[in-house]
Design goal:
The protein is of the alpha/beta class and 263 residues long. The chain contains eight helices and eleven strands. The chain is 25% helix and 22% strand. A seven-stranded mixed sheet has the order 7-4-3-2-1-10-11, sandwiched between helices. Helix 1 crosses helix 2. The longest helix is centred in the middle third of the chain and has 14 residues. The radius of gyration is 18 Å and the shape is globular. The chain starts with 20 loop residues before the first strand and ends with a strand. Bound molecules: zinc ion (2 copies). One zinc ion binds next to loops.
């Protein structure tokens, strides 16, 4: 009888010999706000799914918007899950990149930047999907009427500089994806691009050359609750805070970030 019981997957966090801990992270998750995000991606569903899948930290990264972050942070705080606010920015080169920020005040400043540079192309909800953000009770709080998929009127360099000026972290998203990945959009990663980390879909031998230059991580890019933690990043850090995350993504002071399963 017992062998038929379905137990949740064990959480694999562990302490390392140097006193640091590994944490499981999924740093690229969309919500109901993204036109392509499932209506099921509400704050509560996202946080519940992340906890069920033994994640220690998630990041909310809707296309060109941060409006849903604060409610997911609120639910995460209630339930003991660290939620980082951010966005998946689409640059003028049509390159997608993940920007993450330490707190909601900095996130608001970044939202002003997004508002300034997002083109005034109207969304067609019936065609592209609704762009609303909701509270913990799944009541609609607001709607973005401009199409969030559009490319910002800002270059990749300008976006990275803006994120840095707010003390945030930035990494190119799904670099090996045929659409909106930097390798396909530009054909290469400029050597002078001020980044330390890149996100990949497939962590295979094709990444070995880039591995010499960058930390390689992988995240789910979830658009439905089921997709959360489909790909995850291990963070070797002393504690769960933004400065530790910054060091882990930079691979400094003994901190590390790496694709889970490739320790
Ligand atoms: Zn993307
Ligand atoms: Zn995405």
């Amino acid at each position: 009888m017992l062998k038929h019981l379905k137990l949740p997957a064990p959480c694999l966090n562990f302490y390392t010999l140097d006193g640091m801990r590994t944490y499981r992270a999924d740093l690229h998750i969309h919500t109901v706000l993204s036109p392509c995000g499932s209506l099921e991606m509400s704050p509560r569903r996202i946080v519940d799914a992340a906890i069920e899948k033994c994640l220690d930290v998630i990041a909310i990264t809707d296309h060109n918007s941060t409006h849903q972050c604060s409610e997911v942070v609120r639910v995460g705080t209630e339930k003991g899950l660290w939620v980082i606010g951010g966005a998946e920015v689409n640059t003028r080169e049509e390159v997608h990149g993940i920007a993450l920020f330490e707190n909601l005040e900095l996130l608001q400043q970044f939202q002003l930047y997004l508002d300034k540079w997002l083109p005034n192309i109207p969304n067609k909800p019936e065609r592209f999907g609704y762009q609303v953000w909701v509270n913990a009770a799944e009541e609609i709080l607001g709607e973005e009427h401009r199409l969030l998929w559009s490319a910002l009127n800002q270059s990749l360099d300008e976006v990275i500089a803006m994120v840095a000026s707010l003390g945030g972290v930035f990494f190119p998203a799904h670099i090996d994806r045929p659409v909106n990945g930097i390798l396909r959009q530009l054909g290469f990663i400029p050597t002078d691009l001020p980044i330390q980390t890149v996100e990949v879909l497939r962590n295979d031998a094709t990444m070995d050359e880039l591995r010499l230059r960058y930390r390689i991580i992988s995240n789910s890019d979830a658009h439905t609750p089921e997709q959360i933690a489909a790909r995850t990043t291990c963070l070797k850090m002393e504690a769960l805070n933004f400065n530790e995350l910054r060091m882990a993504l930079g691979g400094v002071n003994g901190r590390l970030a790496f694709v889970e399963g490739r320790c």
